[in-house]
Amino acid sequence: MNAHVSQGGWPVLVLNADFRPLSYYPLSLWSWQDAIKAVFLDRVNIVEFYDRAIHSPSFDMQLPSVVSLKSFVKPSTHPAFTRFNVFLRDRFVCQYCGAPDDLTFDHVTPRSKGGQTTWDNVVAACSPCNLRKGNLTPHQAGMFPKQTPFAPTVHQLHRNGRLFPPNYLHESWLDYLYWDTELDP
C-alpha cells in the first residue's frame, strides 16, 4: 500500500457528473476530509468506498474512494499556457534529443530575436540541449524540435496525461480511468 494511504491520506478520485475524471494529470484527487465535507454539502455522490470507516459520537461512515460531482463542470476548451502544460504537451521529453530529465523551457526562436513566449514558440528542452542551442535560431544551431510547437486542446493534454498514471491507483478507481485506452502518437 502507498505510504500516503497507509499514513491516513485515503485520497478520493473526483469525477465530473459524466463519471470522467476532472483531470488526468494531475489526477483529480481530494483528501477524504474534503470529500466528506462535499458529501454533507450535497455537492457529490459517493460512487465507491474504501474498506475503512470514520466514526464520531453521532455517526459512522465508510470512507469514499470515488465521488462524482452532482453538477457538471464544463471543461475549459483552451488550456492555460503554463510550463507544466508545455511539458505535458511534449510528453515530458526534450524536443531536441528525447531525454526525459532536467527539463527546461526553450524558446524555439529566441526572445532576443523576436520570439514570443507562446504555445507556438516554446518547447520542453533538457538543460544540455537548451544550453547548446543558446541564443541561436534552429537553423543557426542545427537543432530542430521533434514536433512543431502548437497550442494543444484540453483533449490532447488529457490524452497525454493518461500516459503518466500516478504512483498510487486504488483498485476502486480503475473502472473510471482509461489507462489502457489506445492512444494516438
TrEMBL record:
Pfam families: HNH. Residues 81-131 form the HNH nuclease domain. InterPro entries: HNH (IPR002711), HNH_nuc (IPR003615), NA-targeting_endonuclease (IPR052892). It comes from the Bacteria. Keywords: Endonuclease, Hydrolase, Nuclease. GO terms for molecular function: endonuclease activity; nucleic acid binding; zinc ion binding. This is 5-methylcytosine-specific restriction endonuclease McrA. It comes from Rhodopseudomonas faecalis. The lineage of its organism: Bacteria, Pseudomonadati, Pseudomonadota, Alphaproteobacteria, Hyphomicrobiales.
